[in-house]
Amino acid sequence: MVKYDAPHHKPNGSNSDIKIANIAIVGGTHGNEYTGIYLLKIFKERQTFSSFKSFQTTLLLSNPKAFENQSRFIDFDLNRSFLNKDLKDITLSAYEQSRSKAINNLLGPKGNAKTDLIIDLHTTTANMGVTIILVDNNDFNLKMVAHVQSQLKDISIFYISPDDSDNPYLNSIAKYGFSLEVGPISNGIVRHDILIKTYQTVIYCLEFIEAFNQGFQSDEQTVDVFEYVKQVDFPLDNNNQIAAMLHSDLQDKDFIALQKGTKIFEMFNGDTVLYEDDESLYPVFINEAAYYYKKTAFTLARKKRLTLLPRNH
Ligand SMILES: [Zn+2]
After folding, report:
1. Nearest Cα to 263, choosing from 280, 251, 252, 281?
2. Among 111, 159, 186, 245, which has the highest number of CB atoms less than 10 A from its own CB?
3. How high does pLDDT run on average in the chain?
4. Inter-residue contact 204 to 148 (CB < 8 Å)
5. 309: CA distance to ligand 1 center in Å?
6. 220 alpha carbon – ligand 1 mean position (Å)
7. How far, in Å, from the CA of 74 to the mean position of ligand 1?
8. Cα-Cα-Cα-Cα dihedral sign, residues 197, 199, 204, 209
9. Domains detected in the chain
């Protein structure tokens, strides 16, 4: 049997008030992203978490009906269904709107959750490698992801600051955690290499948490994040239909700074569209299959260096 080893860290340093006692690992929030769904089976069958003593782990297939249907969702995107106002609104009763309430009962309630930390497993068709998506940049989250980044090469951290201090993502039920995007991979398949990267990232996090619960303080002082700026839609024709394809100069160039004058689209009529901003932003989710329905071609982010609180703070 293959075992996907990750090196173990030695706890040292001082204690902290934060204790992570209950963790949920969630897969299949989008029913056609199979990596997380099958990873849950692997975790269960191999009893991967039995060696961790300082926390309990819940495994959750979050959107079973969409998985059965081999689709991203049935009625709504489940990973946009966790705003506080929507969770409280009993008139919202389509499949994912009911499912989000059931998950909130199981893991939450949001704001006072029995689950301390959630890792929500996703995949992307974009060439993003391993990307941690944070919606809360609290110091614990930053330290955890900075530490994982120091252990595992080629991990990027994408940060979405919430509107009105609320956000609609599943992992926002808990105070700590993130969603994980690993790609590139088609929807509806499993790839061994992508699955192993996802597995390793989860294990590094859990090893960090186990050590943290025992008083470990990491050494990292800064962490680089890519902060969400805006989405860029495909050019549209007069009928509101997509009128261009992503240019090959941009395809697969996720997390590589865009320079003014870079070709970003080739119109179906033969014209070329250039990147015209003076600021050099970073494209991510380039050609993400799940965003064609809303005609989004890629997302732009700004690179930022964040300072972590010193040890013993
Ligand atoms: Zn997803």
Report:
1. 251
2. 159
3. 93
4. yes
5. 31
6. 29
7. 14
8. positive
9. 22-220 (3.40.630.10), 225-307 (2.20.25.160)
How far is 174 from 227, CA to CA, in rounded Å? 21
Longest CA pairwise span in the chain (Å):
63
- Cα 290 to ligand 1 centroid, rounded to whole Å: 8
Amino acid at 67: F
**pLDDT at 37 exceeding the cut of 50:** yes
- pTM for the full model? 0.93
The helix/strand/coil state of 189 is coil
| pLDDT of amino acid 217 | 84
pLDDT of res. 61: 98
**Nearest one of 220, 206, 197 to 176, comparing CA atoms:** 206
Closest CA to 99 of 80, 123, 121, 85: 80
Distance 29 CA to ligand 1 centre (A): 6
Length, in residues, of the chain: 313
Whether 264 contacts 246, CB under 8 Å: yes
Tokens of 133: 């998506």
The side-by-side arrangement of strands in the sheet containing 263-267 is 244-246, 263-267, 272-274
| Residue 76, burial from CB neighbour count under 10 angstroms (0-12, 13-18, 19+) | middle
Distance 244 CA to ligand 1 centre (A): 25
Q: Write out the residues surrounding ion ligand 1, Cβ under 5 A.
A: 30, 33, 122
pLDDT tens track for 112-156: 999 999 999 999 999 999 999 999 989 999 999 999 999 888 899
Strand partners, 304: 225
Please list the residues that pair with 103 across neighbouring strands.
none
